Amino acid sequence: MASLRITRAFRPLTALSSRRLLSTTPRVMAAGDTGSGSSRPMGDRSGDAFTKREKGAEDYYVKQHEKEKLLAVRAKIAEAQKHLKDLEKHVDEISKEQGGEQH
Q1: Which domain holds residue 68?
Q2: Which of 6, 28, 42, 98 could form a disulfide with 46 if both were Cys (CB 3.0 to 4.6 A apart)?
Q3: Residue predicted with more confidence, 97 or 89
C-alpha cells in the first residue's frame, strides 16, 4: 500500500519533467549542414545552395506581393480620379443649368 502511494506521488513529476525536456530541446545545426547558412568560412554573407535558393524564393514572393499591392493601389487611384471627373462634370452641368456662377 505504501509503495502504491509513493508511485502515485512521483508519477506526475516524472511525466511533467520528461515533457519539458522534449519541448525545450533546441534544434541545433552544425556548420556545413544543409540550411545552416555557414558552409563557407566567409561569415554571414555566405551560405550553401539551399540557403541561397530559399532566400531567392522569399525575395521573389515579397516582390510579387508588393507588386500586387501596388497594382491594387493604382486601380483605386484611377477609380478615384474617374469619380472626381464625374463629379466635376456634374458640377459643370448644374452651373450651366443655373446660368453660370452667381457671385
Answers
A1: 48-103
A2: 42
A3: 89
